[in-house]
Amino acid sequence: MSVTAIGKVNFDKEVLQSELPVLVDFWAPWCGYCRRLSPVIDQLDAAYEGRLSIRKVNIDEEPELADTYEVETIPTLYLFQKGKTPVSVIAPQAKSQVTDWLKENGVD
Q1: Which of 3, 6, 15, 31 is catalytic?
Q2: Which pLDDT band holds residue 84 (cuts at 50, 70, 90)?
Q3: pLDDT tens profile 93-105
Q4: Domains and CATH numbers, the chain
């Protein structure tokens, strides 16, 4: 399974208007740590199916989105939940750190 890439054109519909919480992975193809984290993101996409939507934003292709969300370090994960200010985790070190972060923010 592969997580869907999104950009500025579909960000509002796919993320901001989603009924489900949405995890957005801001990454770049040249980032070694981003590439190592990618399989974890894919695993989470399968594990949280129906409870969480996961999308990826390539910061090289979508610099405006990276600027809007003040992404300075990658990978940065943002959790968007309808009506709430998004929360982030920067460069998580393990899958458990991401799942704990999701749980702390109400995604089980």
Answers
A1: 31
A2: confident
A3: 899 999 999 999 9
A4: 8-105 (3.40.30.10)
